[in-house]
Amino acid sequence: MPETVLVSACLVGLCSRYDGQCRADSRILDFFTSRGLVPIPVCPEQYGGLSTPRPRTWFTLGDGRKVLDGCGDLLSDNGEKMNGAFIRGALETLKTAQMTGCKTALLKERSPSCGVHHVYLEERIVPGCGVTTALLREKGFKVFNEEELEKLIECLNK
């Protein structure tokens, strides 16, 4: 049976970005096709009940780990606190991963949901992870960003 990998929907061309644009990453599509992997596209923000397009959101305190711990904050550019929607989206993404047998994820860097190594703290890019990435890691998933395809291959080959 082919291996399944959770993947940010925006990376495979689904119109799920906050601005409503569709921007498939051909490297990602080729990666899945050439290796016979089954991508399981997810958008935690849509799973959390947010529309597409939607207001930009960034951390004002902490990162995804801190939000899950109850001491971080996400704020939309219209001033709305977004922690609840992002936590709901992370939980639904976890359910999807579990139902489809995923053990690894390839997620969009700098996203407040999916950021793997960096996120936005207000307008600055800082070290940290998104809410969904934090939850998946807590549950034992290996999470990579779109620049770490070689690391993902190594992980899948183990």
Provide an overview of this structure.
This protein has one domain (4-157). It has helices at 26-35, 44-47, 64-69, 83-100, 131-138, 149-157, and strands at 4-8, 38-42, 57-61, 73-76, 104-107, 118-121, 124-127, 142-145. The protein has 158 residues and is an alpha/beta fold. The strands form 3 sheets. Strands 2-1-5-8 form a 4-stranded parallel sheet, sandwiched between helices. It has a two-stranded antiparallel ribbon with strand order 3-4. The protein has a two-stranded antiparallel ribbon with strand order 6-7. The two termini are 16 Å apart.
Beta-strand portion reads 15-25%
Q: Element order, helices and strands?
A: EHEHEHEHEEEHEH
| Sheet having the most strands | 4 strands, parallel
Structural class: alpha/beta
Helix content: 25-40%
Average residue-wise pLDDT: 96
- What's the number of helices? 6
Distance between the first and last residues' Cα:
16 Å
Q: Low-confidence parts, pLDDT < 50 over ≥5 residues?
A: none
Number of domains as seen in the coordinates: 1
List the helices and strands and how they pair.
Blueprint: E1 4-8, H1 26-35, E2 38-42, H2 44-47, E3 57-61, H3 64-69, E4 73-76, H4 83-100, E5 104-107, E6 118-121, E7 124-127, H5 131-138, E8 142-145, H6 149-157
Parallel strand pairs: 1-2, 1-5, 5-8
Antiparallel strand pairs: 3-4, 6-7
Helix pairs in contact: 4-5
